[in-house]
User: Fold this.
Amino acid sequence: MTTTRYRTTNVDGFKIFYREAGVPGAPKLLLLHGFPSAGHMFRDLISRLADRFHIIAPDLPGFGNSDMPDRGAGFDRIAEIIDRFTEIVGFDRYAVYVFDYGAPTGFRLAVKHPERITAIISQNGNAYEEGLSDGWTPIRAYWEDASPANREALRAFLKPETTVWQYTHGVPDPTAVSPDGYSLDNFYLNRPGADEIQLDLFGDYKSNVALYPTFQSYFRTHKPPFLAVWGRNDPFFLPPGAEAFKRDMPDAVVRFFDTGHFALETHAAEIAATIADFLAR
Assistant:
């Protein structure tokens, strides 16, 4: 089934939309996107890997075509829903590709169910303090003081031009970035109530940083096969964050690409080839 199918499933009353491709029975690969995107960010990757993997890419709660969680729901709740989602779709053992918000989601799943994880691919998905750039300063300010003024300041991250900047910053040739991805993200960000959900998640991201030692302990204890594929010019997650994985998993493979945060927009072919080679071994 190299054709991508677009499905929706009920996760205990919560609608999760997802993309599925590949052959059932093939090695399973779960793709977890980040902010402010959805499963559509994997469109080019899925087509390049569907001939050898059974792939599922859900829209996280509050993103894309999935339901929005209740106000105040954070990353723990997102991970709970995705954990249950994997059980419903029959992903009992799988490799997981994590990006941005998908990283603290996927790492929570790995900590809870280490026996289910066959490998981890992290594309600009951070788990170390040294990976956080100064771009997090206004968000950190909100963690320390959840004042209305600090919350309001974060609305700049939700502006259409900021989404475009996230896609194009650090890309040597911005004309290589299709407008389709950031235009669709901006459409989803404009849904009623989406802004407050996203501001809540900015505030709750501190829970992910608090879990970094837990994630690192999992890496040291279980040493899953680990591949980092990193846009080296990412304004939010720095290359030292990718290199840090080797501190806890000496056999981790780290590859850098001359691009920005949304590395798949410019390097899907190279990243797909790297993943295929890595998982084959």
Summary: DSSP finds twelve helices and eight strands in the chain.
